[in-house]
Amino acid sequence: MSRTDRPRAAPAVQPGHPLTADAALLARLESAAPGAVTGRASDRLSFAHDASHYLLVPQALVAPRDMAQVAALMRTAAAHGLRLTFRSGGTSLSGQATNDGVLVDTRRNFRGIEILDDGARVRVQPGATVRAVNNRLARHGRRLGPDPASESACTIGGVVANNSSGMTCGTEANTYRTLESAVLVLPSGTVLDTGAADADDRLRALEPDLHEGLARLRDRVRGNPASVRTIEKLYSIKNTMGLGVNSFADHTRPADILLHLVIGSEGTLAFVAEATFRTVPAHPHAATALLLFSDLAAATGSLPALVDTGFTTIELLDATSLSVARQDPRAIAALRELTVRDHAALLVEHQSPSGEELSDRVDTSSRLIAGLPLAAPAELSTDAVARAALWHIRKGLYTAVAGARPSGTTALLEDIAVPVEALLPTCSELTGLFDSHGYGGSVIFGHAKDGNVHFLLNEDFDAPGNVDRYLRFTEDMVDLVLGAGGTLKAEHGTGRIMAPYVRRQYGDELYDVMCEVKRLLDPLGLLNPGVLLDEDPAGHISHLKSTPTVEAEVDRCVECGYCEPVCPSQDLTTSPRRRIVLRREIARAKEAGDTGLLAELEREYQYDAVDTCAVDGMCATACPVGIDTGDLTRSLRAEQRGRTEQKVWAYAARHWDGVTRGAATALTAASTVPDALPARITAAGRALLGADTVPAWSADLPRGGSRRRPVRTRTPQAVYFPACLSTMFAPADPEAGPGVRDAFLALCRRAGVEVRVPAEIASLCCGTPWKSKGLTDGHTAMRDRVLPVLREATDNGALPVVVDAASCTEGLARMLAEEALRVVDAVEFVDTTVLPGLPRARRLPSVVVHPTCSSTQLGLNPALLRVAAVVAEEVVQPEDWSCCAFAGDRGLLHPELTASATAAEARAVLRHPAAAHASVNRTCEIGMTRATGHPYRHLLELLDDATRPHP
After folding, report:
1. pLDDT value at 718 more than 60
2. Sign for the pseudo-dihedral over CA of 839, 845, 846, 847
3. More confident site: 852 or 18
4. N or C terminus of the chain: which is more exposed, having fewer CB within 10 Å?
């Protein structure tokens, strides 16, 4: 089920309301992209938000299924004067992914990745993230040249549209330099593959005026010495301001000029349906150091020598950045002990293809570093843990500043570039602008060797006078940067924020060339109006986003969208970012007294955001400010629980042994009768009581399991807490071997490791069923039962508690977080304690493993892969793996959620034939079995098979 075909109630907003869907518009769009159009208020409002500080609400949202539908949309837009904006990752910071026309979602159905020439090239669709592409390239020792910090969430569409670069690529390996060709859909609907041998001839035949116009502009630019000088100056540093007029200087054929003009055009010229990149080597060996200096002058004065030494990365942190970073508990000792005054730092890193080459580079650079005017000793480290701690200093700045901003304010992350020799005075004067305009506490950091500076400040656009203050600051900043010979946007794109200043940076002549390019390609001005080229002098301070205060769990959200690629419901209903922004829109409607809109948003929010949230916590692993949107969902679910429901589930907690055995008996009984009978019974229950209350039975569900029983031993090394999942669900294939409970006990006996199982185990649970549903009374009741039993069983914490299902490990660890009890997963325990005592395994040829959301958050995946390597010769972790969203009973209540969440991984699994399939959680095994048709078993069951003595 998609957001365009799910059941709907009649809208509550009345005709004439700004969010009333335009039926005629929707009909026109539907004719171009059947089944891909929505005008729901929830969809339009949630997609109105991106990572920028602008807010424009689209009239409709379209998620085209293929390039043909995009071409049809272009033709429809031209025929009816419809404004189109392409939106993929929504991570752009300058306002280029939002508009009040028709928003075209190009992420959902455009995620194809094709490796070419053993990784030397890669063909990608615009919805694939940079991380997904690099994951595919990793096995070939290659990666994309552009390496933006948002690589986990930003997509290839945005990479091309913004001419992305990053920390290491400079201007040599950015998008402009590494994009080989693209398939373009022009505003006329014409499709052009610039990689075809006859691309230029086809452009001349299909678009003769465009072909002639590009050739004419090429000659005009090349024939103007002032234009050539301006281009040489501005493109010698990072520059994403305006259209890429350097294309006219660098390329001759109109088809090649067109391709490179589209790079950095921010969706104003064409749609990029496919992009083929030349890749660069991925260097696996690295050494990192943090160089602390007494002041900014000492730091920037050391840059030439450091650049000459060949450092891949040189990152600058100013004194305010260091003051913020040293407060982080994870900061390195040298920084925590530093009394920051005027200090500055350079974070430097070498990356090399081999350990030998890295060693040589470290030796050379260490001698240089020893002679620098450092405020504290420093050395290059190759240790992964130490390097991660150093990078946390740099990457944690955004978290620290944005996460601590006052409620209701917006975090603004801006970037500029100047010649490296102008870096010191620019940073010094920029700090002075912060102080003079009341932006104290703003931080400066960036890519020092490129003269590329980022700065982060917080603003409340609703407060009186603050928009004027922001405008004054911007004007002063523009004067500063242009006076230094710099560019106003180095990496983040022109967007709306700098569109009024493009003419000032380039001058009238080149600005007119850009406008002529726009007229040639998009004569009606329908693609992304107001972005990149805008004659409105107040365009950059129009449509500013306010941020109403909502729930404490999510109030610090900066709407960056990093959470979206890891969310299991992203393609079915909504995502963490959209859940949060809809809470803000609900608050806005409530404050405005808009009862009709409020009713519609709240009704649609229930299924979209509450019922189909897996509360898996994966969003927290990606969020730069550490938000777990599941906390919001659990809180909302708790608010919806009545006293009777709380009491019923609290009663269940106090009688859990009987409840789990009852569930097992029901599953076993259902498996003995014709499939249609239990299916009809549960369907009737769901119709009567609701799909979020009664699970859906299906024939692929296993029989019921067996009751958990205590194990007594005199000298235990751990307390074993078998999950109640083994009582409710039988093993995937009882004839193939025992379930994980018996397998774990057998492995321990085989290795000579004694474990104790508490006498009361049958009545105990990790508490996750109650916590995930917001059943606070039941969770408290179960905690009150579990805690005294485990205190006694562990000898007051002397022994670890071992759990055999990753989600239950996580749940129990959370339940006991404030207690002196250590909880570990059975896979980790086997990896560290049991494996050394086991006989040599009879290895399978291959195994496909499914990590889970809980194994990821527990840091369990390295142990999972090590144990899997004992089981099989080849271990395959699909590149497209993600949370399966079975989430306890969520996959039974809403099977469409699991089907959507597992679709990509299921396709990847089919590409990897294997002897076995494994995971580390029983419900995840059920979900993956359902998705792939392959029986998934717990990894420890396979290890038991592989080490069991022959009969």
Report:
1. yes
2. negative
3. 852
4. C
